[in-house]
Amino acid sequence: MKRIVINPATRLEGHAKIAIIMDDNGEVQDALFQTVEFKGFESFCLGRNAEELPVITSRICGVCPWAHHMASVKATDALFSAPPPPTALKVRELAYNAFMVHDHSAVFYALAAPDLLLDPDTPRAQRNILELVKRIGRDTGAKVLTLRKAAADILTIVGGRATHPIFGCPGGISRGLTAEDISTIREKSRQLVELAELTNKVFEDSVASKKEFVDLFNTDAFVNRSYYASLVGKDGRISFLDGDVRVIKPDGSPFEEFKPESYLDHFEEASLPWTYMKFPYLKNVGWKGLREGEDSGVYRVGPLARFNVAKGFSTPKAQTKFELFRDTLGSPAHQTLAYQWARVIEILHAAERVTELVDDAELGGKEIRSPLGKVGEGVGVVEAPRGLLVHHYKADERGVVTFVNLIVPSTHNNSGICLSVKKAAQHLIKGTDIPEPVFNRVEMLYRAYDPCLACGTHSLPGSMPLKFELYDSSGRLLRAEARGL
Amino acid sequence: MESEIVAKPKVAIVLGATCSGCDYSLLDLGAGLLDVTDQVEIVYWPTGIDSKLGDLEAVPDGGVDLILFDGAVVNEDNLEMARLSRRKAKMLAAFGSCGTYGGIPGLINTGSPKKILLEVYQNLPSRSDKAEPLCFEGEDALPKMLGQAYALDQVVDVDVYLPGCPPPLKLVANLFTDVLAGKEIPKGTYYASNRAVCYECKRVKENKDIVALHRYHEIQPDATRCLLEQGIVCLGPATRGGCDAVCCTQNQPCRGCLGPLPNSVDSGSEMMSALASVMSLDDENKDADYADIFDNLNDTLGSFYMFTLPKSILGRRKVDQG
To answer: What is the pLDDT of residues A68-93, one digit of tens each?
Structure first.
C-alpha cells in the first residue's frame, strides 16, 4: 500500500496533514485528514461554573471567537432556562453579522484571494497576501484593511474587544448599547457595505465572469455530490443564529429537518486512531466511508451548504448576488471551489443586516437580561462562518458543568474535505510523477473549506506550508514535495 | 559622513498551543499593520504570511531580533518550537496569557491526560465507536502530550512578557515602538501596567463591606458601582492593568487574564485572602464559615485561576497516575 502525506504543517509546526493512501495498483484508495493538535476543552470545562463557558470556549479559536461565544451563550440561555429579551437578541445579531464581515473578509483576502486573483499556476513562493498587495497596490491594500477595521471597531463597541468578546451572558447580554454607541455603529456600518461591495466586484470581475475559472469550478474532479446541512430561518432563508437544522439530499430534495436540540438523533461521529479529528456522518444514512452520493452519510456545512439548503437571503443586494450564483452554478451547487464565492456574497448580506439592525427601535432598549430559571441542559447551535457549530452542556443544580459536547464546523466537514481530496487525487494523481499544478489544485480545494484549524489547532490553513509525501507499500519514502516548508 | 544602512529588525511569530487570537488580532491594527510590516522584516509568521519554518531555521542562532511566542506548551511539538524560538531569538517574548501564564489551555492541569482523552473521545454521546482510538506510535503518531500545560518560561528562558487574552493592541504597539527605537528593554519587562486593573476601572468604589459572594449571572449588578462591593468575585485588585478595565466596562468581572501584580507570588490565593479580609458577616450569616462562603462559588479553581493555573503555586491538580 502506498501513501502520500499532504502535510500542511511540518512535524514541528504539526497540527494537520492529509494522508492519501494508495493501493498496490497505484490507484488512490482513501484520503484522511489528520489533526495532530488537541486541547481538551470538552474535558477541562467540566467542573467550571456554567456561566463562565462563553468566556472559556471563545478561546477555542481566536479567528472565530464570536461563533463559539454565541453558540455557548445560546447553550447557557437554555441551560439556565432564560430566553433573552428582544433587545439582547437584536444586539447579539448585530454583533454576529459584524463578526461575519470581519471573519469572511480576512479569509477571502488573506487566504483565498492569492489563489484566485493571482494566476492559479503562480509559483507557490509568490502566491501570498504580500504579493497580492503588490499587485493590487499598497493603497488598495490599506483601503481594504481600513474598511475591515470598521468591523473590528463595531465588535469592540459591542463586545469590549474584537477578539474574545466580553459580551453575552446567560439570558442576555451584560451591557446594552447607548445612543452614542448606536450612532457610531451606524457610521461604521456604511464602511462594511463598501467593503462587501468592493469584495464582490473584485470576485466577479476576476473570477465569476472568467470562463477559465467557471470551467475550473465545474471540473468533475472538484465536484462532490454530498448531503448539506445548515440552519434555516422561519422564512426558509439563510439564518446565522436561529432556526431549525435542515438537511438536503445530493439531488437537492429535503432529507430531514429538526430542532437543534435533537442533533444527537441525526449526527453521529466515527473516530480513527491516527487523528484527533472525528468523522461525523448522518446517522439516518449511515457511515459508508469517504464516498459521495445518496447512500453515503457524508454531509457538508458552511457557506456552500447554506446556499444549497436555504432559498436565499432576506436582504436585497445579497439576494441579487445569490441569484447570480445559482444562475451560474446551478442548484444545489456541488462545486467545492464555490465555497469561496458563497463566502464573498455572505459578506454583503451580513453588512446589509448590520445596516438594518442599527435602525431597529429595540436595539437601544434597557431590558437586556432575563431572570434565570431552572438549571439543567442546553444546546446552542449557530452558523459559524465555516458552518454549523454545536455546543451542548449539562450542569448540576448548582450550575456546575457536568457534561460538554462540541461539534465544530471543520469537524462536520472533515469527511467532506477528505472526500474532496480523495476524488481530486484519484483523478489527478497517477503514479509518483505528480506535476506542479496538481499540488496547486489540491491545495485550493482543501482551502475552499477554510478548515478553521485554529478551532482544534493553530494556523490559518491556507497560509500553512504543505508537504506531499509518497510512500511505497513498505512505507519507504519515494518522493517528497515540500511546498512552503 | 558615510550613510549608514540600518537593517530592519527581524521579527518572527511562533505558535504553541494557542487559539491564534493574539496574532490574528494584529490584523485589527488596520492600515497600521502595513506601517509595522514596512519597518520590520518578518522572517516567520504562519498565520499572516506564507512563511517557511526553514526560513526561521536558516537564521543564525540569536539572529532574530524579536520572537513573539503565542501559546502555552502542552505537547512535544510545542516544546520543540519553544526551544527553537529560544535559540533563534535575541529577545523572546511570551505573547499573550497562554505564553505568559499558561492561559486557558492551562486548565488542562485540572485533570490527567488519560482521563481527558477518555472524556473527549470515548464518553461522548455523539461518538459511535467506543474503542480506544489514539495512536502515539509509528508513522501516523500524534505528538505526545506532556501530561500538563506549561507557561513558556517554565520550559525556556523568556526575556519579556505581553500578557492579556489577547494582549491589548496598544501594549503590543508599545513593544514594537521600543524595538524600533532600539531601546534597551530590561529582561523581565511586562508590557502591562504595574498597577491593578482597579486603577483603570471607572466604577465607583465606596466601601468594601461584603456580606455574601455571588456568581456574576445570579444578580444584575449596578452598572456604576464596584463589582466586588456588590459581592461579585472580580480579580481586578490582584490583576495587572493595561486593559482599561474592559471587562468591568462591559459589566462583567475581571477574570485575571493579565495575571498577577509585580512581586505577587500567587494572585489567586492573594485575592482569596484579600476577599476574606473584607468580608463581614452580618446577622443573617453570622454563623457561617468563610470556607462555606467560598464554597458558594462552587468552582474556586476556575474562579481564581482561569488564566494562570500553570504558573500558580498550585501548578496542577494532583491526579492518579495513569
So the answer is: 999 999 999 999 999 999 999 999 99
